[in-house]
Amino acid sequence: MRPRVEEVRIQGLGVIDEAVLVLSPGFTVLTGETGAGKTMVVTGLGLLFGGRADPARVRPGSDKATVEGTLVVDPAGRVAQQVQDVGGQVEDGELIISRTVSAEGRSRAWLGGRSVPVGTLTYLAEDLVAVHGQMDQQRLLQPGRQRAALDRYAGEELVKPLRSYEQAYKRHRQVTDQLAELTARARERAQEADLLRFGLQEVEQAEPRQGEETELREEEGRLAHADSLRSAAETAHVALLGDPMSVEGEMQDAVTLVGRARAAVEAVRDFDPALAGIADRLAEAGYLISDVATELAAYAESVEADPARLAAVQERQAVLNHLLRKYGEDTGVVLAWAEQAASRVAELEGDDERIGELTREHEELTRRLTDLAAELTRVRTVAAERFGQDVTEELTALAMPHARVTVVITPAAEFGPHGIDEVELRMAPHPASPALPLNKGASGGELSRVMLAIEVVFAGADPVPTFVFDEVDAGVGGKAAVEIGRRLARLARTAQVIVVTHLPQVAAFADQHLVVEKASDGSVVRSGVVALDRDGRARELSRMLAGLEDSELGRAHAQELLSIAAADKA
C-alpha cells in the first residue's frame, strides 16, 4: 500500500480561518478566484512536511497557524517504521502529522502523537511528498538539485558505486585532514617533544620514590632537633626508672613509687577481692613503665646529631621540591606525569612514521576514488542520454515540439561528496537555438513544463507517493494546457497528485475537483472548501473559461472539456 494524504485541516493560515480538505487517491485539483487562498493550501502542505515557517503567514488576529494532516500508510512499511523510531504511533494505518507556527515565529511539530524536531518532518517527507511551487522551480536551477535529479533517474545502477564512492570519499577526507594537521604542526610537535624529554631527563636523574618527600621531612625533623630529642628521652627515662648516680634515699622515680603502692596493697589483698584486682593492675603498670623506660634509654642512645646527614637530607629535599614545583604536588603525581610524558614522546616520535602511513593510504584512496568517480561518470553519462531523450519526448507532448533538453556532465576541479561530476540541465527551445542553462533557456511557463516533464519521467523510475503542484501551468494555455492536464492525469495513475490551477483545461482531467471560496468577510471558513459533482465542475469550469458561471456557451465548452478528459483517461 502506497502512502497518501487523506485529509488536511488548516487554521489561521493567510486568508484561511479554518478549512478541511478531504483528498482523493488520484488527481485532485483546487481552483477558486484569485486571492481565495488556494496557494495557502500548498503552503499548508509544505509546512506539514517541514517547510520553512514564516510568521507573516499567520492570519491577522490569530495567535498561531495550525496544519494537521491525516495520512494513510502501510503499518508494516518504511514510513511507519520511521515514525516508530522517533516514538510516534501509526494507528489502524493512519498517521497524524501536525505543525504550528506562532505569530512570534516559534514553530512546533508532532508526528504520530509525539513532539519532534521540524527536521524530522523534512526527513520523512523524502519518502512521502514532492511539493512544487515557484520556489521549487528555482531550486531546480541549482546544480546540486540537477545532479540529484539525474542520480534519482539513474536508479539502482548508480546506488552501489555511489555508496562505495561516498565511503571512500569520507575516509579520504579524514586522511587528508590528518595529514594536513600532522604536517602543519611538525614544528610544534618537535618543540613539545623536546620539552617533554627535558622533563623526563630531570625526573630520571633525580630518581624519586613515591612518598620520599614525607620520609625526608620526618628525618630532617629528627636530625635538626637531635639534642632536644635525646635530652627529652633521658629526662623521661630518669623520671620513670631513676638516676643510678643519685643517692638511694633521694630516688622518687615512677617504678619505685608504683612498687611501693603495689607492696602496700599486696599486704592486705586477701581481705578484700577489690584490692586484689587493684594490686594486679599495679603490677601490670610497673611492668609497662619498666618497658617504656627501656625503650626510652634505647632511643636516647640511638639519637645522634649528624650535621653531614642533615645537609644531605636538605639537599635531597631541594631536588625533590624542584620536581614538585614543575611536575606535580607530590612524588606520586611526578611519577605519573613521567609515565604519561614518556608515552606522549613515543607518540610524537611516531608521527613521522604515521605521516608515511597516511601518505601511502592517501595515495591508495586517491586511486580508488579516481576509479569509482570514473564509474559514476560512466553511469551518469548513459543515464543523462536517456534522461534528456525522455524529458524531450514529454516536452513534445506538452506543446514544446521543438525543444530539446540535454544533460551536460563536466569534470569538477576536485573530488566532491558525490563524485567529480558537475551536472547541468540545458534546453534549446528551437533547433537553431544553442542549448543554454535552464535559467537562461527557459521562460517561466517553459520551466513549469520542464518540471512536470521531469516528474512524469520520474514516475516510471522512482515515484514519490504524493505530488503537489502550485500553478505548474503558469504562463501556458490552449493545447499546452490540455497536454499538461493529460500528463498530470497520467502521473496520477501511479501517485497522488494535488494541483492548484487557473486553467480549466487542466482542471477537467482531475478525479476530484475542490473549489476554495471566500466568505463575505474575505476569509476562508470551514465550509469554504467544497468538493464539486459533475454539474458543479461544469459551473466552475465555465467560470474559469468565461468568467460567468451561468454562461450557456461556457457551460457547453466546460461539458466538452470534461467529456474529452474522461474519454482520454478511459
TrEMBL record:
Membership in a protein family: Belongs to the RecN family.
PANTHER family per the UniProt record, alphabetical: DNA REPAIR PROTEIN RECN
CDD domains assigned to the protein according to its UniProt record, in alphabetical order: ABC_RecN
Keywords: ATP-binding, Coiled coil, DNA damage, DNA repair, Nucleotide-binding
Protein name: DNA repair protein RecN
Pfam family, one: SMC_N
Species this protein is from: Streptosporangium saharense
Any single Gene Ontology cellular-component annotation: bacterial nucleoid
GO biological process terms on file: DNA recombination; DNA repair; SOS response
A molecular-function term among this protein's GO annotations: ATP binding
Lineage summary: Bacteria, Bacillati, Actinomycetota, Actinomycetes, Streptosporangiales
Role played: May be involved in recombinational repair of damaged DNA.
Keyword ATP-binding: yes
Coiled-coil positions: 348-375
InterPro entries: DNA_recomb/repair_RecN (IPR004604), P-loop_NTPase (IPR027417), RecF/RecN/SMC_N (IPR003395)
UniProt domain RecF/RecN/SMC N-terminal: residue ranges: 6-521
